[in-house]
Amino acid sequence: MAGPAYRRIAAVALVGAALLAPVARGEAADAPGKAAEADWRAIPDDELLVMTLAGGHRVVIRLAPSFAPEHVANVRALALAHWWDGESVYRVQDNWVAQWGDATEKKPLPPAVKMLPAAEYDFAPLASAQRLSRTDAYSRESGVTADGWSLAGDGTRSWLPHCYGTVGVARDDAPDTGTGAELFMPLGGSARRLDRAYTIIGRVIEGAGYLAGLPRSAAPMGVYASVAERMPILQVRLASDMAAEERPHYQYRRADNERFAAMIAGREHPAPPRPALGGVDICDVPLEVRPAP
Amino acid sequence: MAGPAYRRIAAVALVGAALLAPVARGEAADAPGKAAEADWRAIPDDELLVMTLAGGHRVVIRLAPSFAPEHVANVRALALAHWWDGESVYRVQDNWVAQWGDATEKKPLPPAVKMLPAAEYDFAPLASAQRLSRTDAYSRESGVTADGWSLAGDGTRSWLPHCYGTVGVARDDAPDTGTGAELFMPLGGSARRLDRAYTIIGRVIEGAGYLAGLPRSAAPMGVYASVAERMPILQVRLASDMAAEERPHYQYRRADNERFAAMIAGREHPAPPRPALGGVDICDVPLEVRPAP
What we know:
The structure is a homodimer of 293-residue chains.
Chain A: H1 2-17, E1 40-42, E2 48-53, E3 58-63, H2 69-80, E4 88-93, E5 97-101, E6 130-131, E7 141-144, E8 150-153, E9 158-159, E10 166-169, E11 183-186, E12 200-206, H3 208-212, E13 231-238, E14 250-253, H4 258-268, E15 289-291
Antiparallel strand pairs in A: 1-14, 2-3, 2-13, 3-12, 4-5, 4-13, 5-11, 6-7, 7-8, 8-9, 10-11, 10-12, 14-15
């Protein structure tokens, strides 16, 4: 059985190696799509939100103040007030979202939080540094901005697409009823229908897999039926509000260069014998980050 | 704070209620997209593969013998030989796949297993019962067959797309080197680039969330670094090989009717104020199943 056994060993490697895990891992891309040292830029400390869950599991979110200034201002105010400390991840619905904040929905918000921020998901027409060759059912064009955010568009406006790991603002029916206190992360394969309906305040750059790996709830909408099921949040801090020795430092990969273009081209046109129609989904373009060296 | 608190309560409901979790739940669709009683048909007992994991967690797979006859024949032979009993889910890579079988890759296969089945992912041009209005980066057309399988196509051929919950055959570089002994399920948002490269033998219709909720491994390719991390498989059986009183019975929803068309149309054109470009992704069209009444 040596032959077949060997083939099966390789098979395991192949699924992972030839078809690299994207997005959340800051994977090393193959040259010529590999980043140059100059492509890495620091993410400012006040654009890193650090959530520590029970057991010490850390989730780090890169905030998007240039896209959602009002909601990010709220998120910063909530973090500075330590508002999330002692709250929980209280909802994990399979193939949909993990959601966190105050499960009772009754905790008063700090005075600095704006109660009715405007919806922040209609931006100027797509002017991304990179543009994808093919589109999808939820947009007419898509691409990646110079500073490393995915954008989708319809020709007259653009918006941040709901990919795995993006962080959105839960809200009521009206677009301006979410403050940022209740947040969610898509964890499955079907969140794009939330596009242009929910404000996105950033994306998880560390620990998305921990949120995505929490036990699913079978209760309605995936809200844990008991307090015991909830995953406690120990604290949520802006990195700029943390002691220097505890503060994480991250860099993102700039997209306004030929190396990023080559990386996209490599995904759109993989080496034979892999088939392709010349396209890659905007949610399958890795937005690389790395801890600062 | 009554007003804002009320809004936040509703917000939680809204994310789930207005934006229902798809695919894995057999959700009740709104009329006129709701199934009629006549739309439900039994899934044959020999097309249900029942995997029982440690703790009694059950994963049920609907097999696709009409699409992958050789690989499904192997899977049936492996189940009849109880080959998977005592093996494990040994790989859970975030935003990628859960994979199971023999982690050592050295266990001899039963004589009934064909060692080099042909690749089974190039089918006749798309002739689905329902066709979607818009396409995606990985296909030029897509739809749902009368008997409830999603298909993608490029005009000259069609294939089963790698959506959340589909079950694929891990293999070596050559397309005919996977037997079906090692299987994987996409659990994130980015598996379509596996299309037309891996044979799909079915889809998980119960328990996908349990597989998707297993702890991620940080080791290379998400292969658990220690035996203790693996999730033991107690047994895998064809339903037709189980005692009558233990046997699950499932029905699938036929797609060759106006109700299914209305359901798709409702997803492509959600009620205002929800924005849409008239499209839905093939992986976000629910393929409903239900336990037989």
